[in-house]
TrEMBL record:
It comes from Sphingomonas oligophenolica. GO terms for molecular function: hydrolase activity, acting on glycosyl bonds. Belongs to the glycosyl hydrolase 130 family. The lineage of its organism: Bacteria, Pseudomonadati, Pseudomonadota, Alphaproteobacteria, Sphingomonadales. Gene3D superfamilies: Glycosyl hydrolase domain, family 43. Pfam families: Glyco_hydro_130 (PF04041). Keywords: Glycosidase, Glycosyltransferase, Hydrolase, Transferase. This is Glycosidase.
Length: 376
Protein backbone atom coordinates (compact mmCIF):
# COMPACT_ATOMS: atom_id res chain seq x y z
CA UNK A 1 0.00 0.00 0.00
CA UNK A 2 1.38 3.43 -0.95
CA UNK A 3 0.85 6.58 1.11
CA UNK A 4 1.20 10.29 0.37
CA UNK A 5 3.62 10.65 3.28
CA UNK A 6 5.54 7.79 4.91
CA UNK A 7 8.90 8.71 6.43
CA UNK A 8 11.11 8.50 9.49
CA UNK A 9 10.96 11.80 11.39
CA UNK A 10 13.14 11.06 14.43
CA UNK A 11 15.99 8.61 14.97
CA UNK A 12 18.87 7.91 17.39
CA UNK A 13 20.99 10.43 15.50
CA UNK A 14 18.57 13.17 16.57
CA UNK A 15 19.01 12.54 20.32
CA UNK A 16 21.49 14.74 22.23
CA UNK A 17 22.80 12.39 24.92
CA UNK A 18 24.48 15.30 26.67
CA UNK A 19 20.92 16.31 27.67
CA UNK A 20 19.81 12.82 28.71
CA UNK A 21 18.56 12.23 32.29
CA UNK A 22 21.50 9.80 32.59
CA UNK A 23 24.16 12.30 31.47
CA UNK A 24 27.02 12.40 33.96
CA UNK A 25 25.25 9.91 36.25
CA UNK A 26 27.16 6.71 35.38
CA UNK A 27 30.84 6.01 34.80
CA UNK A 28 30.43 4.42 31.37
CA UNK A 29 29.81 5.50 27.78
CA UNK A 30 26.26 5.11 26.50
CA UNK A 31 24.60 5.35 23.12
CA UNK A 32 21.04 5.45 21.79
CA UNK A 33 19.99 1.91 20.92
CA UNK A 34 16.64 3.21 19.67
CA UNK A 35 14.39 6.29 19.61
CA UNK A 36 11.07 4.65 18.78
CA UNK A 37 7.50 3.57 19.73
CA UNK A 38 6.23 7.14 20.22
CA UNK A 39 2.96 7.90 21.94
CA UNK A 40 1.26 10.72 20.03
CA UNK A 41 -1.37 13.38 20.67
CA UNK A 42 -2.40 16.77 19.33
CA UNK A 43 -1.38 19.70 21.55
CA UNK A 44 -3.87 22.47 22.41
CA UNK A 45 -2.27 24.82 19.86
CA UNK A 46 -2.49 22.26 17.03
CA UNK A 47 0.99 20.77 16.73
CA UNK A 48 1.55 17.07 17.33
CA UNK A 49 3.51 15.71 20.27
CA UNK A 50 5.52 12.51 20.12
CA UNK A 51 6.53 10.97 23.44
CA UNK A 52 9.53 9.04 22.13
CA UNK A 53 10.96 6.04 23.92
CA UNK A 54 14.73 6.53 24.09
CA UNK A 55 16.51 3.26 24.87
CA UNK A 56 19.92 4.27 26.20
CA UNK A 57 22.41 1.43 26.28
CA UNK A 58 25.96 0.84 27.44
CA UNK A 59 28.49 1.14 24.62
CA UNK A 60 30.49 -1.73 26.15
CA UNK A 61 28.18 -3.84 28.31
CA UNK A 62 30.62 -6.75 28.67
CA UNK A 63 33.68 -6.03 30.80
CA UNK A 64 35.92 -8.49 32.65
CA UNK A 65 33.69 -11.48 31.97
CA UNK A 66 30.52 -9.76 33.17
CA UNK A 67 27.57 -8.20 31.38
CA UNK A 68 26.25 -4.97 32.84
CA UNK A 69 22.89 -3.21 32.95
CA UNK A 70 21.76 0.26 34.07
CA UNK A 71 19.45 0.62 37.06
CA UNK A 72 17.86 3.64 38.76
CA UNK A 73 17.70 3.70 42.55
CA UNK A 74 16.25 6.16 45.03
CA UNK A 75 18.63 8.48 46.88
CA UNK A 76 18.67 11.61 48.98
CA UNK A 77 19.07 13.59 45.76
CA UNK A 78 15.91 12.05 44.32
CA UNK A 79 17.54 9.27 42.35
CA UNK A 80 20.84 7.94 41.01
CA UNK A 81 21.86 5.46 38.34
CA UNK A 82 24.10 2.48 38.95
CA UNK A 83 25.49 -0.48 37.02
CA UNK A 84 24.76 -4.10 37.89
CA UNK A 85 27.03 -6.94 36.72
CA UNK A 86 26.29 -10.62 36.04
CA UNK A 87 28.84 -13.31 35.10
CA UNK A 88 28.56 -14.22 31.42
CA UNK A 89 28.25 -17.91 32.32
CA UNK A 90 24.89 -17.14 33.95
CA UNK A 91 23.20 -15.42 30.98
CA UNK A 92 22.01 -15.95 27.39
CA UNK A 93 22.66 -12.97 25.10
CA UNK A 94 20.97 -14.20 21.88
CA UNK A 95 18.51 -11.27 21.80
CA UNK A 96 20.29 -7.90 21.45
CA UNK A 97 17.55 -6.15 23.46
CA UNK A 98 17.94 -8.23 26.62
CA UNK A 99 19.76 -11.08 28.29
CA UNK A 100 18.15 -14.09 29.94
CA UNK A 101 19.30 -15.59 33.23
CA UNK A 102 20.04 -19.31 33.00
CA UNK A 103 18.33 -21.74 35.36
CA UNK A 104 15.91 -20.81 38.13
CA UNK A 105 12.87 -22.69 36.86
CA UNK A 106 11.20 -19.71 35.15
CA UNK A 107 12.13 -16.90 32.78
CA UNK A 108 14.17 -14.09 34.32
CA UNK A 109 15.75 -11.37 32.21
CA UNK A 110 17.51 -8.03 32.33
CA UNK A 111 17.72 -5.32 29.68
CA UNK A 112 20.69 -4.08 27.69
CA UNK A 113 19.29 -0.54 27.90
CA UNK A 114 17.31 1.77 30.17
CA UNK A 115 14.42 3.66 28.56
CA UNK A 116 13.15 7.16 29.21
CA UNK A 117 10.61 9.31 27.38
CA UNK A 118 11.51 12.35 25.30
CA UNK A 119 8.79 14.84 24.18
CA UNK A 120 9.32 15.71 20.52
CA UNK A 121 7.02 18.37 19.04
CA UNK A 122 6.08 18.00 15.37
CA UNK A 123 4.33 20.34 12.98
CA UNK A 124 0.55 19.98 12.77
CA UNK A 125 0.86 17.65 9.77
CA UNK A 126 3.58 15.56 11.43
CA UNK A 127 6.06 16.10 8.60
CA UNK A 128 8.83 17.73 10.61
CA UNK A 129 10.27 18.37 14.07
CA UNK A 130 9.51 21.77 15.60
CA UNK A 131 11.18 21.34 19.00
CA UNK A 132 12.66 18.70 21.31
CA UNK A 133 11.72 19.27 24.96
CA UNK A 134 14.59 17.77 26.95
CA UNK A 135 13.50 19.74 30.01
CA UNK A 136 10.22 17.76 30.01
CA UNK A 137 11.77 14.29 29.67
CA UNK A 138 10.20 11.55 31.80
CA UNK A 139 12.63 9.23 33.57
CA UNK A 140 12.35 6.66 36.38
CA UNK A 141 11.32 8.10 39.74
CA UNK A 142 9.95 5.09 41.65
CA UNK A 143 11.29 1.64 42.51
CA UNK A 144 8.81 0.01 40.12
CA UNK A 145 10.49 1.93 37.27
CA UNK A 146 14.10 1.14 38.12
CA UNK A 147 14.82 -0.52 34.75
CA UNK A 148 13.03 2.12 32.72
CA UNK A 149 9.84 3.76 31.46
CA UNK A 150 8.72 2.42 28.09
CA UNK A 151 6.19 2.74 25.27
CA UNK A 152 3.93 5.70 26.02
CA UNK A 153 0.38 5.72 24.63
CA UNK A 154 -1.52 9.00 24.90
CA UNK A 155 -5.29 9.52 24.83
CA UNK A 156 -7.29 12.70 25.24
CA UNK A 157 -10.59 12.13 27.03
CA UNK A 158 -12.59 15.31 27.43
CA UNK A 159 -10.15 18.03 28.49
CA UNK A 160 -7.64 15.65 30.08
CA UNK A 161 -4.67 13.83 28.60
CA UNK A 162 -4.04 10.29 29.83
CA UNK A 163 -0.70 8.58 29.14
CA UNK A 164 -0.07 4.93 29.90
CA UNK A 165 3.48 3.57 30.06
CA UNK A 166 5.18 0.28 30.85
CA UNK A 167 7.28 0.54 34.00
CA UNK A 168 9.96 -2.11 34.35
CA UNK A 169 11.53 -3.47 37.55
CA UNK A 170 12.24 -6.71 39.44
CA UNK A 171 9.15 -5.88 41.50
CA UNK A 172 6.81 -6.14 38.50
CA UNK A 173 6.38 -5.30 34.82
CA UNK A 174 3.43 -2.97 35.26
CA UNK A 175 1.34 -0.35 33.49
CA UNK A 176 1.54 3.12 34.96
CA UNK A 177 -0.59 6.20 34.32
CA UNK A 178 0.40 9.85 33.86
CA UNK A 179 -2.17 12.64 33.54
CA UNK A 180 -1.96 16.19 32.21
CA UNK A 181 -4.10 19.19 31.35
CA UNK A 182 -1.84 20.29 28.48
CA UNK A 183 0.30 17.25 27.48
CA UNK A 184 3.38 19.20 28.63
CA UNK A 185 3.34 18.91 32.43
CA UNK A 186 2.65 15.30 33.44
CA UNK A 187 1.73 13.89 36.86
CA UNK A 188 2.56 10.27 37.71
CA UNK A 189 -0.55 8.63 39.18
CA UNK A 190 1.13 5.26 39.83
CA UNK A 191 0.41 1.68 38.85
CA UNK A 192 -2.98 0.95 37.26
CA UNK A 193 -2.41 -2.58 35.90
CA UNK A 194 -0.24 -5.19 37.56
CA UNK A 195 2.46 -7.56 36.37
CA UNK A 196 2.83 -8.28 32.63
CA UNK A 197 -0.26 -6.50 31.41
CA UNK A 198 1.12 -4.55 28.46
CA UNK A 199 -0.08 -2.31 25.64
CA UNK A 200 -2.82 -0.57 27.63
CA UNK A 201 -4.70 1.79 25.32
CA UNK A 202 -7.35 4.10 26.73
CA UNK A 203 -10.20 4.87 24.32
CA UNK A 204 -10.38 8.52 23.25
CA UNK A 205 -13.85 9.01 24.68
CA UNK A 206 -16.25 7.47 27.18
CA UNK A 207 -18.42 4.43 26.52
CA UNK A 208 -21.59 4.29 28.60
CA UNK A 209 -20.21 7.00 30.88
CA UNK A 210 -17.05 4.99 31.68
CA UNK A 211 -13.41 5.00 30.61
CA UNK A 212 -12.54 1.99 28.49
CA UNK A 213 -9.19 0.48 27.59
CA UNK A 214 -7.64 -2.30 25.58
CA UNK A 215 -5.23 -4.44 27.60
CA UNK A 216 -3.00 -7.45 26.96
CA UNK A 217 -2.19 -9.77 29.86
CA UNK A 218 0.79 -11.98 29.06
CA UNK A 219 1.60 -15.49 30.19
CA UNK A 220 3.16 -18.79 29.17
CA UNK A 221 -0.06 -20.83 29.26
CA UNK A 222 -3.24 -20.56 27.19
CA UNK A 223 -6.14 -22.99 26.86
CA UNK A 224 -6.98 -24.36 23.43
CA UNK A 225 -10.07 -23.43 21.45
CA UNK A 226 -12.15 -26.40 20.22
CA UNK A 227 -11.02 -28.09 16.99
CA UNK A 228 -12.27 -26.16 13.98
CA UNK A 229 -12.64 -22.85 15.87
CA UNK A 230 -12.02 -19.65 13.94
CA UNK A 231 -9.81 -18.47 16.83
CA UNK A 232 -6.27 -19.39 17.83
CA UNK A 233 -5.16 -19.62 21.46
CA UNK A 234 -2.52 -17.13 22.55
CA UNK A 235 -2.03 -13.46 23.49
CA UNK A 236 -5.08 -11.38 22.66
CA UNK A 237 -6.40 -7.84 23.08
CA UNK A 238 -8.72 -7.72 26.10
CA UNK A 239 -10.96 -4.94 27.42
CA UNK A 240 -11.46 -3.21 30.76
CA UNK A 241 -13.56 -0.31 32.04
CA UNK A 242 -13.13 2.22 34.83
CA UNK A 243 -15.09 4.98 36.55
CA UNK A 244 -11.99 7.19 36.96
CA UNK A 245 -9.16 5.83 34.74
CA UNK A 246 -7.40 4.57 37.89
CA UNK A 247 -9.40 1.50 38.94
CA UNK A 248 -9.98 -1.00 36.15
CA UNK A 249 -12.33 -3.98 35.86
CA UNK A 250 -11.72 -6.54 33.09
CA UNK A 251 -14.66 -6.88 30.71
CA UNK A 252 -16.39 -10.27 30.71
CA UNK A 253 -16.40 -10.61 26.91
CA UNK A 254 -13.21 -11.08 24.85
CA UNK A 255 -11.84 -8.35 22.62
CA UNK A 256 -9.77 -8.86 19.46
CA UNK A 257 -8.42 -12.40 19.23
CA UNK A 258 -5.83 -14.11 16.99
CA UNK A 259 -7.58 -15.69 14.00
CA UNK A 260 -6.90 -19.28 12.99
CA UNK A 261 -6.99 -18.31 9.29
CA UNK A 262 -3.58 -16.63 9.45
CA UNK A 263 -0.26 -17.10 11.24
CA UNK A 264 0.51 -13.41 10.66
CA UNK A 265 -1.36 -12.64 13.89
CA UNK A 266 -0.20 -15.68 15.87
CA UNK A 267 0.83 -13.12 18.50
CA UNK A 268 -0.99 -9.83 18.77
CA UNK A 269 -1.40 -6.76 20.95
CA UNK A 270 -2.60 -3.18 21.02
CA UNK A 271 -1.19 -0.37 18.92
CA UNK A 272 -2.78 3.08 18.87
CA UNK A 273 -5.51 4.19 21.31
CA UNK A 274 -8.93 3.58 19.70
CA UNK A 275 -10.58 6.70 18.25
CA UNK A 276 -14.26 7.17 17.44
CA UNK A 277 -15.38 7.36 13.82
CA UNK A 278 -18.86 7.40 12.30
CA UNK A 279 -18.52 3.63 11.79
CA UNK A 280 -17.36 2.82 15.33
CA UNK A 281 -14.08 2.73 17.26
CA UNK A 282 -11.07 2.46 14.98
CA UNK A 283 -8.39 0.26 16.54
CA UNK A 284 -4.91 -0.12 15.05
CA UNK A 285 -3.09 -3.12 16.51
CA UNK A 286 -0.04 -5.25 15.85
CA UNK A 287 0.22 -8.86 14.76
CA UNK A 288 3.41 -10.92 14.88
CA UNK A 289 4.24 -13.68 12.44
CA UNK A 290 6.75 -16.16 13.93
CA UNK A 291 10.19 -15.86 12.31
CA UNK A 292 13.59 -16.07 13.99
CA UNK A 293 14.09 -14.56 17.43
CA UNK A 294 11.78 -11.53 17.11
CA UNK A 295 9.22 -12.33 14.37
CA UNK A 296 7.64 -10.01 11.77
CA UNK A 297 5.56 -7.17 13.27
CA UNK A 298 2.82 -5.60 11.14
CA UNK A 299 -0.05 -3.19 11.80
CA UNK A 300 -3.67 -4.28 11.28
CA UNK A 301 -7.00 -2.55 11.91
CA UNK A 302 -10.45 -3.30 13.27
CA UNK A 303 -13.65 -1.30 13.72
CA UNK A 304 -15.39 -1.90 17.04
CA UNK A 305 -19.01 -1.24 17.98
CA UNK A 306 -19.36 2.20 19.57
CA UNK A 307 -21.62 0.93 22.40
CA UNK A 308 -19.96 -2.45 23.03
CA UNK A 309 -16.29 -2.51 21.92
CA UNK A 310 -16.13 -6.28 22.32
CA UNK A 311 -18.13 -6.51 19.07
CA UNK A 312 -15.82 -6.36 16.05
CA UNK A 313 -17.78 -4.70 13.24
CA UNK A 314 -15.06 -5.14 10.64
CA UNK A 315 -11.48 -6.35 10.62
CA UNK A 316 -8.81 -6.77 7.97
CA UNK A 317 -6.53 -9.79 7.56
CA UNK A 318 -4.38 -7.69 5.23
CA UNK A 319 -1.84 -5.46 6.98
CA UNK A 320 -2.24 -1.70 7.00
CA UNK A 321 1.49 -1.10 7.58
CA UNK A 322 4.42 -3.41 6.99
CA UNK A 323 8.09 -2.99 7.88
CA UNK A 324 9.75 -0.66 5.37
CA UNK A 325 13.46 -1.51 4.83
CA UNK A 326 13.83 1.42 2.46
CA UNK A 327 13.10 3.88 5.26
CA UNK A 328 15.80 2.49 7.54
CA UNK A 329 18.47 2.01 4.86
CA UNK A 330 20.23 5.31 5.80
CA UNK A 331 20.41 3.95 9.38
CA UNK A 332 21.68 0.52 8.37
CA UNK A 333 24.78 0.86 10.55
CA UNK A 334 22.58 1.41 13.64
CA UNK A 335 20.17 -1.48 13.10
CA UNK A 336 20.11 -4.52 15.36
CA UNK A 337 16.77 -6.06 14.32
CA UNK A 338 14.50 -5.73 11.30
CA UNK A 339 11.00 -6.76 10.20
CA UNK A 340 9.27 -4.61 12.83
CA UNK A 341 6.72 -1.82 12.55
CA UNK A 342 4.88 -1.09 15.80
CA UNK A 343 2.10 1.52 15.59
CA UNK A 344 1.61 3.58 18.74
CA UNK A 345 -0.43 6.70 17.89
CA UNK A 346 -3.10 8.17 15.62
CA UNK A 347 -4.44 11.71 15.08
CA UNK A 348 -7.25 13.04 12.90
CA UNK A 349 -6.08 15.31 10.07
CA UNK A 350 -9.19 15.91 7.98
CA UNK A 351 -9.29 13.53 5.03
CA UNK A 352 -6.57 11.32 6.50
CA UNK A 353 -5.06 10.12 9.77
CA UNK A 354 -1.53 10.84 10.94
CA UNK A 355 -0.23 7.50 12.22
CA UNK A 356 2.88 7.22 14.40
CA UNK A 357 4.90 4.01 14.62
CA UNK A 358 8.20 2.66 15.81
CA UNK A 359 10.25 1.25 12.92
CA UNK A 360 12.69 -1.60 13.60
CA UNK A 361 12.78 -0.69 17.30
CA UNK A 362 15.02 2.10 16.05
CA UNK A 363 13.23 5.23 14.81
CA UNK A 364 9.88 7.06 14.65
CA UNK A 365 7.83 6.67 11.49
CA UNK A 366 4.96 8.97 10.47
CA UNK A 367 2.45 7.80 7.86
CA UNK A 368 -0.52 9.65 6.37
CA UNK A 369 -3.30 7.08 5.94
CA UNK A 370 -6.37 8.11 3.90
CA UNK A 371 -9.66 7.59 5.72
CA UNK A 372 -11.00 5.81 2.64
CA UNK A 373 -8.84 2.82 3.60
CA UNK A 374 -11.23 2.05 6.45
CA UNK A 375 -14.47 2.56 4.53
CA UNK A 376 -13.92 0.09 1.69
Amino acid sequence: MSFRFDRLVFSPRDVELSRSPLAGKIDAETYVLGAFNPGMTRLPHGNLLLMVRVAEALRTPIVDGHIHAIRWEASDKGGDYTLDAWPLDFVDTADPRKFMMRGGGWKVMALTSLSWLLPVELSADGRGVVAVHYDRAIAPRASYQCYGVEDARISKVGDRYLMTTCSVSPERHSTTLYTSDDAIEWTLQGIVLDHQNKDMLIFEGLVGGKYWAQTRPLGDLYFAYPPGSEWRAGPSINLASSPDALHWKPYDKPGIRPHSATMATARMGGGAPPILTDKGWLSLWHGVEPLGVVGIYRTYWSLLDREDPSIVVRSSHDPLLEPAPGLTEPLRDLMYIDNVVFTTGIADAGDHYVVASGEADLACRITHVPKTVFSS
